[in-house]
Each structure stands twice: as C-alpha cells, then as structure tokens.
Amino acid sequence: GSFSKKRWGKEVTENLIDPLVGGIHAGSVYQLSLAQCAPQYLKAAQNKRSVSQGLKAQMANYTPSGNPAFYSLGNGLSELVDALVDDLVSRGVKLITGCESSEIVPFGGGYKITTTDHAFEVEGVICATPSYVASQLIRPVSPKTSELLQTIDYASPIMTLLAYRDDAFPVPLVGSGVLVPRPNRTLATAITFATNKWPNWKVPGETILRVSAGRFGDNRAWEFSDDALITNLEAEMNQILGTQSRSIRSEVVRWHKRIPQFKPFHTQLIQRIKENTPKGIEFAGAPLLGVGIPACISSGSSAADRLSRHLSSPR
Predict the structure, then answer these.
(1) If 0-12 CB within 10 Å is exposed, 13-18 middle and 19+ buried, where does residue 93 land?
(2) Fold for domain 100-153+262-312?
(3) CA dist list (Å): 125 to 128, 144, 204
(4) What is the rounded distance in angstroms from the CA atom of residue 159 to the CA atom of residue 200?
(5) pLDDT tens for residues 149-203?
(6) This prediction's pTM
C-alpha cells in the first residue's frame, strides 16, 4: 500500500490497486507483502527508475496466447479431487478420512500421528493444513515452529451465489465482473459474473453472480444470517448493477479462516519455519506460496521432493 501510494497516490491505491491486489487475498494492500502478492511491481521498481515504465517494459515482452483467461473443470473442482483419489487408490495408497488429527510426536526415529480413532507410526509427515491447525499439531515436536505458524493471520470471506433472470439487468453484463473499492463500505468486495466467466454455468434465461463479502479486518457480513445477508447483497446489486428484481435462487458459503494473509517479510517467515522444523516434517498448502491451485500444487510437490530426499538419505 505504501509502495503504490507513494508512486500513484491515495486515490489510485484505494480505488484500483487495493481492489485488484488486496481483493485476491481478501485483505488490504497496506498490510500485504509486495514481494509475495505483487512481485511484478517489485521487479519493475528494481529494474527501472520509474515503476510505470518498468511495468510497460514487462507488458512489451508479453505475447497474448489467445487462450481463455480463466479455466475451470466442467463439473466443478471436485472433479480434481475425485481424480486424485482414484489415482492414489490405484497406486495402493491408503486414504483415511473422517478422523481428526490431534498431535504429532517423535517416535522411534520417526513420528506418531494421533487421531480421534487411531495412532499412526510414520517415517515422515507432510502437513497440508491451515497454519493454525499445523501449529497445534506440531507443538509437541517444535514449540518454536508452532509459535511461528500461529503468526499467520487469516481472512474469512463469504461467497454468495445469486441467480437472476436475465431481464433483471438493465443491460447485458459485459466482462467477468467488478471489484468494489474499500471506501464504498459495501458488504460486497467483488462481483463475479459467473455465467460470463464460466459459460458452462449458463442456464437459458438466467444470469448467476458470485458475490464476495468480507475481508481481513472487516467481518460485518458474519453478523448476518444467510437470509439477511442475501437481502443486503441483493440491495447492493441494485445499487451497483441496477438489478430490478430479487434473485430467484441463492446459496451462501461461509469460508471461516480460509485465506492466509501474506504480511511483509512472509518469505522470511516461511524460511524461519523451515529452519525450526525437525527433519522428516514438511509443510504444504496455501500459507506457503499462495492461495491458488498452481501454488498449492507447487508447494506440495516441493514438500514431497524434500521428504523423499530425506527418507532416502543415510541416517
């Protein structure tokens, strides 16, 4: 936030940069790490006297692929989970669900994982949970790692799907959505035109919006019941998009403590966590590299590679 405010002013920062960069992380650019959340801006500042010139230089080397900007799976992202489960089972991997892990303790040169129903003796562990869960699990093994993991904050956004008749809008919706700047003080922080972004969602005669509400430090949306939240968001859709009727269907999905906040020096924090974690335990998931699927896959692959090297090395 201070980086962009110094260069482009408060108005640009709060009405453009914060909705774009802060919105992705359900946070505020004044509290997020530039290196972690907007590395292209940092690179531009390091390579050019003018950040704007640096960004223009980056764009000059960019060649559009012509492919869609957004991808998903035809029947939802659960397809990815189902495919992974099928692949793992076919490889002989034992999957245990429906039991909560409570702690990881040293045991016989490896570790013991205690759950509600079982205790598992293992050589190594990859912990792919929110950092506040990992903090509790690893406390018996490394109090210092537990303490560091606990410093990562989380936002709790709420996603609401609103289905409208096409004629509820004064004009057809164009683009993939709109971002709502923080000074507007609305509950909605972003509106995705879901049936534009993912055409396979389209039902003849209907338009679906996915409305994000809440961000780090702003939990007003959580004070409402689902019905009251829908009513308030419908009123905001009238103000922002000019909708002329109520939605015909709706669904509220509450994401409690789901989006990690990458504060300044997050990369150094993750390095300290790794340095204080005993060999044979690795971490993966959104708190490390980012909340997107590619970032989570990358962190998981890296964790698996490190653990594999450790287990195959002489001990």
Answers:
(1) exposed
(2) FAD/NAD(P)-binding domain (3.50.50)
(3) 9, 18, 48
(4) 19
(5) 999 999 999 999 999 999 999 999 999 999 999 888 999 999 999 999 988 889 9
(6) 0.86
